[in-house]
Every structure is written in structure tokens, then in C-alpha cells.
């Protein structure tokens, strides 16, 4: 059974998603992936194998079924292809991190995600200024 606090939190998240622009939804995906990669690193530090696995599963799901799946391969051309390859690389690094408890691999993926998020936010900022 779901606690009232969890239910409230879920409703709040669903409301945010429903009211968000497509651009903001991508930012939210980046935030979720980064949060889970960082959570996996904390779990490794504390020897929490289950927590590490859960966080990495969520990060992989967000990257594969969220960020990569949102790419428009027809309209995006070479850029979309390169981003898809980068997302695949991130997933492979997360799998490596899971097998080897590699905090450097997690840091690498978190850095890549933060750089892409920053670029994505700059696109929005540029569009808002125009």
C-alpha cells in the first residue's frame, strides 16, 4: 500500500508533467537520470547493492526509454544519430559501473548528462530571448 506522502508526491509529479512543455519534459528526464546516477554512487559508497541496482535501473530506463526514445531520427539527422549513440554509450557505462562498482564510470555519465542538460536549457533560453 502506498503511503499518503508517496501518493501526494506522485500526484504532484504527474501534475507537473501534465502542465509542462515538451522542452521542460526533456529537462525533467535529464534531472531524473542525473539524480539516479548520483544515487547509485552514494549506494556504492554505503555498500547498498540493492539501492545501487534500483538507481541504475531507473537511470538506464530514463536514458533508453525517455531521452533516446524522444529523439526524432528523421528530423534530427546526424545530430539525432550521434545523440542516440551517446545515450547507448552512457547505458553501457552504467552497466559497467553496476558490474564493477565503478564510481568513475558513474561520474563520467553524470558529467555527460549535465553537459547535455545545460545545452538543452541553453536552447530554451535562446528561443525565449528571440
UniProtKB/TrEMBL annotation:
Q: Offer one example of a GO biological process linked to this entry.
A: bacterial-type flagellum assembly
Known Gene3D superfamilies for this protein? Flagellar protein FliS
**Listed GO CC annotations:** cytosol
Lineage: superkingdom: Bacteria
* Predominant place of localization: cytoplasm
Keywords annotated in UniProt: Bacterial flagellum biogenesis, Cell projection, Chaperone, Cilium, Cytoplasm, Flagellum
Q: Which SUPFAM superfamilies match?
A: Flagellar export chaperone FliS (SSF101116)
**Where does it live in the cell?**
Cytoplasm, Cytosol
By sequence similarity, the record places it as follows: Belongs to the FliS family.
> What protein does this entry describe?
Flagellar secretion chaperone FliS
User: Which organism does this sequence originate in?
Assistant: Niveibacterium umoris
Amino acid at each position: 500500500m502506498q503511503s499518503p506522502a508517496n501518493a501526494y508526491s506522485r500526484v504532484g509529479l504527474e501534475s507537473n508533467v501534465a502542465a509542462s512543455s515538451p522542452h521542460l519534459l526533456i529537462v525533467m528526464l535529464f534531472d531524473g537520470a542525473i539524480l539516479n546516477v548520483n544515487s547509485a554512487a552514494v549506494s556504492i559508497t554505503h555498500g547498498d547493492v540493492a539501492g545501487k541496482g534500483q538507481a541504475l535501473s531507473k537511470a538506464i530506463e530514463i536514458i533508453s526509454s525517455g531521452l533516446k526514445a524522444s529523439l526524432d531520427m528523421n528530423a534530427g539527422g546526424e545530430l539525432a544519430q550521434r545523440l542516440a549513440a551517446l545515450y547507448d554509450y552512457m547505458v553501457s557505462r552504467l552497466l559497467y559501473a553496476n558490474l564493477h562498482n565503478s564510481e568513475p564510470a558513474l561520474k563520467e555519465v553524470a558529467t555527460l548528462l549535465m553537459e547535455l542538460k545545460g545545452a538543452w536549457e541553453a536552447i530554451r533560453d535562446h528561443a525565449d530571448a528571440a
